[in-house]
Amino acid sequence: MDANGPGYDDESGAPPIYELRLYLAGHSPKSVRAVENLRRVCEEHLPGRYRIELVDLLENPQLARGDEIIAVPTLVRKLPVPVRNIIGDLSDTEKLLVGLQLRTASGRQ
Amino acid sequence: MAATMHPPGTAPSIRSAVAKAPTGIQGFDELTGGGLPGGRATLVTGGPGSCKTLFGIEFLVRGAQEFDEPGVLLAFEESAADLTQNVASLGFDLAGLETDGRLVIDAVRIDASEIVTTGDFDLDGLFIRLASAVQSVGARRVVLDTIEVLFGALGDEAIVRNEFSRLLRWLKDHELTTVITGERGREGQLTRYGIEEYASDCVIVLDHRMQDEIATRRLRVVKYRGSLHGTNEYPFLVTDRGLRVWPITSTSLTYAVSTERVSLGVPPLDEMLGGGVYRGSTVLVTGTAGTGKTTLAASAVDAACVRGESALFVSFEEAPAQIIRNLRSVGIDLGRWVDQGLLRLWGERATAFGLEAHLSGIERLLEETEPTVAVLDAVGSLSNVGAEAEVTSAVVREVDMMKSRGITGILTSLSHDAQRESSSVAVSSVVDTWLLLRNVESDGERNRLLFVMKSRGTAHSNQVREFLLTDHGAELLDVTVGARGVLTGSARLAQAAEERAAAAERSAELERRRMAFARRTAEVDAEVAALRAQLATESAELDLLVAEESRGVSARAADRASLARRRESGSAHAAPASRDG
């Protein structure tokens, strides 16, 4: 892993765009909570630098296989690489930030 | 051979009310009375390398190929490519089945290091994947291999446990027959995460252990709700046609039986057995070293080939070429039958493999050769391979294999102690005919005796016979019973010579008497003839006298008449004149 953390693109120096995909199964309370939590954190920490794609596996079950999804909700950080999987309704903001590598486990940004 | 021959396992020996999904795994369905509980989940657990994945895959492959039940494999540990490659050597074409739409392999890759959990979640992703796969092929069978990976990877054990339980309910609701593999836990736990409490219908434990430096795989049905099942540990084997379980104690005794007799190639022995042994029965030949067990077995094989039947001769002690050479010295030419393709000679050291591999090999030979007579020489050699009880069970299984195929089996076994009438392998109770060969030592030589210890369904002879190996095969001789008991070898010959001498003497005496009588008869006849001759002479003399006398009377009468005439004429004659004077 990059010593500076992957939050910054070393070559251009510009902060990278976050490409996020959130896998859900229907409109369960868990799904709704996960979407709300994700939008809130992104607006707060990645304003203007993120794209969120929502995938409902009930509508596209075959997509579960492609991204190796077993649990829902699962948030996949497609970019920047490496791909990260974050499972759960994203209610623990600290863990979400660590998972997105917007913050290290010790709490530094 | 009777037409109603059951292959093993077709006659259901275990009944139950639970619908069964046959696994197609050789021997397994027999011991569970038909397979796994249909529409329910079965836990298959075992240590690393215990073949639990293979069990699951064979369950799917056989289901798709033989029972028209497509399947889904959710693989948590290996990639689809790895799995396909691993089982290709067992003849399982996973890729082909996938192409034909009878199987879906979904390899679920979980990398715990890439996963962060935050907050509540469920396993709907997995459910959706599974449901989609099941739907795509109309699956009736599911294998989850090894789902315990989820417990380690997803962290929150309470959620995973709850979801796992929900998954099993879902599988049951959809009446999917499921195999869940699990890793054996420490300290006697069936599984590492205790998932056995969820799979409550059927639990199977696989084991792979070393015993006396021989690796043996074992299978045990720990639990089978609503069904009787064999409770023993059953050895099993990975063959090139999949798993093979050996359910010895569940083998039902449903052989077809024949009343036809077949010759063992030694006519006097056939006679002792009432015309030979029944076709499809099993003959055990025991004896100490060098008593002619192999030769006797070879005679039976030779007789079968003479009848034009195919035969199999398996030796655990000698190489085929050596068997042919040695038997030629007693006038049995097995080489010609090998050349004609009637006989298959197979030699291998029993110690080369474990008992299960050995059994599998024998079964393969029986299937390939389809003999009517098969010889296993000598089953005692297996004692080097396993513990006594295991060897006995292996031999019993060999007997079953032959009987179920209607093959007349001949087993030889070395017994070490001539006085103890037992073989080194305690199988005498499962064989139909037991021939005991014994060496007796007397007058500075060893001779062989043959006893018929038992022969089921036969009024067999209670006589002891002397067994001879001649340059034209095995022969049986009636033993001579002399003043000192049973006589064999030169003692028998000496006794026979004495008897011949006595008989010769008796006949010479008779001849002498007969000649004396003849002589006496001749003498008497001669005397009678002489007397008759004398009598005849006397009779002739008498006749002569009678004749002379009658002639004299008539002459005198004539004289008197002539004299009278002369006197009447007066002419004197000198002679008649004297009458007047």
Topology, pairings included?
The complex is a heterodimer of chains A (109) and B (581).
Chain A: E1 18-24, H1 29-45, E2 50-56, H2 63-66, E3 74-79, E4 84-87, H3 93-99
Chain B: E1 20-21, H1 28-31, E2 36-37, E3 41-46, H2 52-66, E4 71-75, H3 80-88, H4 94-99, E5 103-107, E6 115-117, H5 124-137, E7 141-145, H6 149-153, H7 157-173, E8 177-183, E9 202-211, E10 214-224, E11 233-239, E12 242-245, E13 261-262, H8 267-272, E14 277-278, E15 282-287, H9 293-306, E16 311-315, H10 320-328, H11 335-339, E17 343-347, H12 355-369, E18 373-377, H13 388-404, E19 408-414, E20 433-442, E21 445-455, E22 465-470, E23 473-478, E24 480-482, E25 485-487, H14 489-569, H15 574-577
Could you explain how this protein is built, in words?
The complex is a heterodimer of chains A (109) and B (581). By secondary structure, chain A is an alpha+beta fold. Chain A has a four-stranded mixed beta sheet with strand order 2-1-3-4, covered by helices on one side. Chain A is built from three helices and four strands. Chain A has a domain of 76 residues: Glutaredoxin (3-Layer(aba) Sandwich), CATH 3.40.30.10. The N terminus of chain A is likely disordered. Chain B folds into two domains: 231 residues, Rossmann fold, CATH 3.40.50; 218 residues, P-loop containing nucleotide triphosphate hydrolases (Rossmann fold, 3-Layer(aba) Sandwich), CATH 3.40.50.300. In chain B, the strands form five sheets. Chain B has a nine-stranded mixed beta sheet with strand order 5-4-7-8-3-9-10-11-12, sandwiched between helices. Chain B has a nine-stranded mixed beta sheet with strand order 17-16-18-19-15-20-21-22-23, with helices on both faces. A two-stranded antiparallel sheet of chain B has the order 1-2. The longest helix of chain B has 81 residues. Chains A and B meet through helix 1, strand 4 and helix 3 of A and strand 6 and helix 5 of B. Strand 4 of chain A pairs parallel with strand 6 of chain B.
